[in-house]
Design brief:
Blueprint: H1 2-28, E1 38-48, E2 55-67, E3 70-77, E4 81-93, E5 96-107, E6 115-126, E7 132-138, E8 145-151, H2 156-160, E9 162-171, E10 178-189, E11 194-201, E12 205-216, E13 220-233, E14 236-249, E15 255-261, E16 268-273
Antiparallel strand pairs: 1-2, 1-8, 2-3, 3-4, 4-5, 5-6, 6-7, 7-8, 9-10, 9-16, 10-11, 11-12, 12-13, 13-14, 14-15, 15-16
Length: 281
């Protein structure tokens, strides 16, 4: 009888081990990258052949779906339309998963009817899903367009980068409201999160204030910085200390950028704003 009990115990132990091993094997057959399935919010930076300044867009949506052992990915962009890659290749690389594939993007340029374009995907998502760096390339759009998706919010410097048109008004001790239309400001972003602000003026010349601090606010953006403003006639030019402040609306359609030179003509303030000067002829 004891032998029977012993044999029964051994059989039960073997059955338990076999069952456990079988379950573990089944679990191991499930690709770990399936955990990437879900929705992600981030920002995109778009670069194309005909522009030297990347175009940043906030609140972009990325969706990853898994079905029948295959991954599909879709990026819905407020700026770049919808890109879909139906069969994504996934490989494990250290702490990341590398994603690649090809698909189709639907977008309309400058208000034109939306069209479909071929696109390719490359990039990585960390296994903990805290970081993502994915690039979608549209070879046939504007000489080649590359869109990079990153998790989180876009830095203010990236969002502000671009060209702005408007008018300037100069005020000092000796005159007021000296206006000039068709003025330009270019804002470029730096790797340290600051921006360079370049004013090109028919009246005040051309100057750049570098390392300007750019910050997001509840209503848009602010700029604060200091540098030198170059002024003069012909070859005789002088650099004057300049303080820069500015505000821009969230959609960047309303802005006011102020250059103040305390040592020029009793204190010269040049204000750049959108549109045209009031009562301009």
């Amino acid at each position: 009888m004891n032998k029977i009990f012993k044999m029964t115990g051994i059989l039960m132990l073997m059955l338990t081990i076999f069952t456990t091993f079988s379950c573990s094997s089944d679990d191991d057959n499930t690709p770990k990258w399936e955990s990437l399935a879900g929705e992600y919010t981030g920002w995109t930076s778009g670069q194309f052949k005909y522009s030297s300044t990347p175009l940043a867009t906030d609140n972009e949506k990325l969706t990853i779906a898994v079905a029948d052992g295959k991954m599909s990915l879709q990026l819905v962009s407020n700026q770049w339309g919808t890109a879909t890659v139906s069969d994504v290749t996934v490989t494990e690389t250290g702490s990341d998963y590398s994603l690649s594939g090809s698909g189709s993007a639907t977008l309309g340029m400058h208000g034109s009817e939306a069209k479909a374009y071929d696109c390719t995907l490359a990039g990585t998502i960390s296994k903990d899903k805290k970081t993502a760096n994915l690039t979608i390339t549209y070879p046939a759009v504007m000489g080649g367009t590359t869109i990079t998706f990153t998790l989180g919010e876009a830095p203010a410097a990236q969002l502000l980068a671009g060209s702005y048109s408007g008018w300037t008004k100069g005020d000092c001790t000796y005159f007021k409201n000296r206006t000039q239309n068709d003025e330009k400001v270019a804002i470029s972003s730096n790797d340290d999160g600051t921006v360079d602000v370049k004013l090109t003026s028919q009246m005040w010349g051309e100057t750049t204030i570098s390392g300007v601090k750019a910050e997001k606010t509840d209503n848009g953006f602010t700029l604060t910085g200091s540098g030198t403003f170059t002024m003069g006639m012909g070859d005789k030019k002088t650099d004057y200390d300049c303080n820069l402040t500015g505000t821009l609306s969230a959609d960047k359609q309303t802005y006011s950028i102020v250059f103040n030179m305390p040592a020029v003509m009793g204190g010269l303030t040049i204000t750049f704003a959108q549109g045209e000067a009031p009562n301009a002829e």
